[in-house]
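Inputs:
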Amino acid sequence: MCQMRRGRFNRAVGIFIALTASGAAALLWFAVAAGGPALSESPSQGLFFGFWSILYNTDAPAPRVLLAAIAMALLLAAGVAAVDRRIANRSRRSADPLTGPLAPRVVMAATRGEFAGPVRVTVLIPAHNEEASLPLTIDSLLAQSRRPDRVIVVADNCSDATVALARAAGVEVIESVDNKQKKAGALNQVLRRLLPDFGDNDVVMVMDADTRLDDGFLAAAVDRFTNDRALMAVGGLFYGEEGHGLIGQFQRNEYLRYSREIGRRRGRVFVLTGTASMFRARGLRTVAASRGSSIPGTPGDVYDTAALTEDNELTIALKSLGGLMISPEQCTVVTELMPSWGTLWAQRLRWQRGALENIGAYGITPQTLRYWAQQLGIGYGVIALGSYLFLIFLMVFSLDTWIWFPFWLGLGALFMVERVATVWKGGWRARLLAVTLFPELFFDMFLNVVYLKGVADISLGRTASWKHVTHVRPLEPTGAKRP
Amino acid sequence: MTAPATVVIPAGILFPEALLHSQWFAVLATFVAINTVMYAALALAKILPKVHPSDWIRTRNERSETRSIHPDAGS
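Outputs:
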């Protein structure tokens, strides 16, 4: 009964997002049509450098329209940011242990005047047949300037040398027992054993077996946890590994922009990445105790095993309970990239579907507002980019002469600067790809198609799958995760 | 995100040029134009250094007590 209700709610998410985004576009369309747009004039002829004869068209939207569009965009962006900020501040100042059991004031009141010992870091590495990448992951941990106190490989249904390699590297191994709920299920089993013995300054780090920490990660994070006992989580900033040619560069550029954005937000977190994030034991215990009542999931579980993107879900869970979190710029990790369009498609479809299911499960709450806005933003972007490409297509096939549009050329230059500036740190390859503009536009279009497929699948109630495809291990059997 | 129409290539003509002078095409062009300008404004905002207006005002953000795990640490 409960599951049916949840399934229906999930389907409504897709329809709600699709209707709202296309509603906004339709509104603009009708406003334009009602205003009676000026029909395009014929292009004029001019001379370039005195000898090339060129056709150009000085058409540009009326200044009034331009100003309105600019104001609209900036107001929307600032509005979302302001609401986001206000909500964060309000929950930070909450003193109600019932609505915000992890809110800083509540945590501070509970831990005031007691010293629970220095910060201790226990690293959990969930691994399912990860013999190829696990040794590097463990090396990156043991080479940290501030070494972890305990490293535990959570071996989940491994049939390769994962367990033997972990033991050889000198770290602990716990094997999951009868686990059919993949990574989240395996982690839940181990956390159920560990958490009761953990004190207030015990910190759990969960990191993927295909990820490597940069040096300084643990030192910076432990510093944060030491200086702020109300801090519940520290998230990693991930960037892409080298290699994989063009498709690798697309992903590296995308991750660079994401990291830059988090930096500009001064580390305020969107998602505590599953690649490497750290949690105070109190935060995880409170999540487990709140599931089934104030947040969705099975009581006693830290991770929601029904979520396709369990890291995103845990982020929303902690935020919903008032927990404080940050992504410091020193906490960087290198993560694996998808080597082909097929694997990228599968990964992104899972992310997209998972993100929609997560906000569907929580509904529209102050803490999820940012995530709803993000989904709507992408939805509108799909329409905007689609109509733009359609317009170009029509023009290309309706004219038989070159016509230059100085106004639009100027805007094009602005986009080029933006694309390049946002990946500047990535070196000349990143900049080169960005400056050519169109390849990245088509990469965006690829992601947009994934987005549409995700929205359509969820709206039509199609079964989602957890296809974890990588170049180092065989395809996992796909299974239905959510009814 | 979207880049504007810059160049029109003299490719084989699939559609009559009159299409470009029709009313609905003008609506489409204006619709795209407004969107493009909106995204351009956002792009510009992304290039410029971000301002944090909250830095300009001194607020009650100063902590009244230590939040360190050491109870006797200075705040």
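Remarks. Residues 1-8, 469-483 of chain A have pLDDT under 50 and may be disordered. The radius of gyration of chain A is 25 Å.
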